[in-house]
Amino acid sequence: MTESKTIETGTSNNRLELQQVLQQAELVFDTAHIDSAIDKLAQRLTERLSGAVPLVLCVMQGGLMFTGKIMPLLPLDAEFDYIHATRYGNNTSGDALEWLATPHKKLENRTVLILDDILDEGYTLAAIEQYCQDQGAKEVISAVLLQKKHDRLKPGMRCEFVALEVDDRYVFGYGMDYRGQLRHLNKIYAVTS
Known about the structure:
Strand 5 (about 110-120), helix 4 and strand 6 form a beta-alpha-beta unit. The longest helix has 18 residues, at about 30-50. The chain has helices spanning about 10-25, 30-50, 65-70, 125-135; strands spanning about 25-30, 55-60, 80-85, 100, 110-120, 140-150, 160-165, 170, 190. The chain has about 190 residues and is α/β, with parallel strands linked by helices. The protein has one domain: 3-Layer(aba) Sandwich (Rossmann fold), CATH 3.40.50. The protein has four helices and nine strands, in the order αβαβαβββαββββ.
């Protein structure tokens, strides 16, 4: 692996741990593969949203890199806002959803496009979709960079717009974190045991 960025964090022990995780990680998708998948997804979304003036909601923090990459590829008269809800925080699992920020723009009678980094079990994305519907959105469409392949998806949850699929592994980079860090990497890695 050739990722050579120095990881700056609060403690040297934490920095050493993160550097070790990155050195031992398996590269899952390189930048060219991610860019190609996002280009294809942008074409599909452009067709799907034809004629709409969507409100694009970036799901913070993980969806930021994906949103930044796909927005210029959507030739739409779109507006932009964000939403921040999490079940995980900096952990690998979680229970109750914590709402950290809701959109500033009105969702009523709008076509809302939600952009997020990963669809794992789907509880967070389902709650965000429900929030948008409860706010009166005319239509809610979700798109994710990555979907995990497993059978733990929330019953009834489905995302039509997925750029890439990955095996059920702990992945990080391109917006996804390893213990709150490493989101900034422009590739996607999987933690190795």
